[in-house]
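Weekly puzzle thread! Below is a chain. First person to post its structure in token form gets bragging rights.
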Amino acid sequence: MTFFLQLVVTGLAQGMVYALIAIGFVIILKCSEVFNIAQGHFVLIGGYLGYTFLVPFGLPIWAALGMAIATAIIMGLLIERLILRPLLGESVLAVIMATIALATILGGLATLLWGAEYKAYHGLLPTITLKVGEISIPSESLIGLIVSIAVVAILMFFFRYTKIGLAMRATAEDLQVVQSCGIRATTVYAVSWVIACVVGVIGGILLAGVSGANMDLAHIGLKAFAVVLLGGVNSIGGAIVAGIILGMLENVAAGYLDPLLPGGGLAQVFPFLVMIIVLIFRPYGLFGLVGIKRI
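Winning reply:
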């Protein structure tokens, strides 16, 4: 039982990071009705930025995180202004293809700057120990859980109580009404891409703090995509719940099912198996809005 609870607790921490990354997916989708294929590559860049600011630059963790967030903000603004804004009014497919191209560019940039090599900075993160009975939470996982919860709380406050946050929620409901009220859609789009970059970069730093920065971090975007589909593509709360569920299921599968198979690896695909099963019986996800069309 202790082993099971240990897997669940560490899976909870991992799931919150998945949920944080998935929020970037949901925000872009709600504001522009586009799946951002490059979200996983924001995570990749974040992992390598964490290494760069912590190891070669030697910055303390708070300064490295601040520099990474500042870089993510600039990256988000540049992406929206140079790549996405010229495509306003174009088909959704054109924008999705642009995000695929963006993912390829970011992957190539990571190879160019960091050589696509494995980079680790486990020992540079703060050491926080927490033990409840016989269950202990690893330091990196606990930091990821705390930071993810804090960032999600800040985002929820931002969407509920700030003018631009309310404007983003309104844009997701009806763009024409928002424009008639004098709110610039381009500003909303820019903020949404900035948030997507920031949560992706923070998620990348947290994940790389556990497993190191490597090119496989880009695949985390696929897991975040599974989180979005499971929770409901238009629900931020659903993304949080689904991220926790998939994080725990993946960890439990790694602990119990992988040892039963030669070579293991089932844990890596287990979230997608759960997603497929849920979508077969509930196509709109756990918390998605059911679309009704009248003919």
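Puzzle host: Confirmed. Bonus trivia for everyone else. The mean pLDDT is 83.
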